[in-house]
Amino acid sequence: MDVKNYSCIREMIEADERLRLSRFASFSDSTEGRDFPQEKCDIRTEYQRDRDRIIHSKSFRRLKHKTQVFLAPYGDHYRTRLTHTLEVSQIARTIARSLRLNEDLTEAIALGHDLGHTPFGHSGEAVLNRLCTDGFEHSEQSVRIVEVLEKDGKGLNLTKEVRDGILNHQTRSHPKTLEGQVVRLSDKIAYLNHDVDDAIRAGLIVESDIPSEFTDVIGTNVNMRLNSLIHDVIKCSFDKPSIEMSPSHEKAMQGLRKWMFQKVYIGGRAKAEEAKAQHMIELLFEYYMKYPNSMPVEYTNLIERGASKERAVCDYISGMTDNYAIEKFESLYVPVGWHVR
């Protein structure tokens, strides 16, 4: 290649994928494409473009102020929805690289998988799911964001493989690509281990509390468990048409997850403010259903273009950060003191 002629860089990357990646990988030059065809980039593959579009989106930036598990924690080192996303991406890329899968596709799915999360984590999601007639799922909302809401209603026009991975990243779903399957497992590995780490940091549990039936299999500290689970996925999935874990590691991981629900996720000091947060989301929903024109114009435009009022209100509220939701609630429901000047 002539270093002065960079117009064929993308083609070189695509050719390298054909030589280097597993026969089970998703190749950039055989993507099912976008809903709205675009001229290809001269230096980036289609999946690289998707990754970049997600990183530069407003919804991705808002993740830094959205709850992961701990509502309004004091301290700089607790995970947010953004740091969770980055940890999922790191784990998924490590697995994808080891299995010779498409790392760019894997990264794009990982970075976009939680864009649709509400303020206050799953507690906010549960409220909107109860209030909205059609229900609310953060995975579906993530796809709605990249297809409809971003870029003033134009969407990001991502490839079908990335959108499929985002939509199907939850446990009960089945991504079409192995890269999507990698993200699906990496999400579980990431949140389980960093939630244990955050719970220990918060003093809610200590390492010795975790039952030995789990630690004997996957390790006695966070780093050991991450290393054990990642290696297990690679070993059980290498050169296979599916992404798998060994029965022993999957059983231990699921057991630890159930234990975390009992000790951390449901009730306890970490969730003490959850009822207040849910009530706040409910009141915001009621207000904007009654006064939809109080929403920013991009959300009232959704209604004019045919979206239901409920859906537009859910779009607005789910896009809020924790702090913005509190700010809007205070402006709508908390009286402001006055004094004579």
Quick take:
This protein has 341 residues and is mainly alpha-helical.
Overview of this protein structure:
By secondary structure, the chain is mainly α. Helices cover 60% and strands 0% of the residues. It is built from 16 helices and no strands. The longest helix is centred in the middle third of the chain and has 24 residues, at 178-201. It is flat, with a radius of gyration of 22 Å.
Percent of residues in helical segments?
55-70%
- Summed over residues and divided by their number, the pLDDT gives a mean of 93
**Main β-sheet, in a few words?**
none
SSE string, helices as H and strands as E: HHHHHHHHHHHHHHHH
Gyration radius from CA atoms, angstroms = 22 Å
Roughly what fraction of the amino acids lie in strands? under 5%
Structural class: mainly alpha
Q: What would you call the shape?
A: flat
What is the CA-CA span between the terminal residues? 74 Å
Stretches with pLDDT under 50, minimum 5 residues: none
Total beta strand runs: 0
The number of helical segments is 16
SSE order and pairing:
Elements: H1 9-20, H2 46-55, H3 58-62, H4 81-98, H5 103-112, H6 121-131, H7 138-153, H8 160-167, H9 178-201, H10 212-218, H11 222-237, H12 247-265, H13 274-290, H14 297-304, H15 309-318, H16 322-333
Helix pairs in contact: 2-5, 4-5, 4-9, 4-11, 5-8, 5-9, 6-13, 8-9, 9-11, 9-12, 10-12, 13-15, 13-16, 14-15
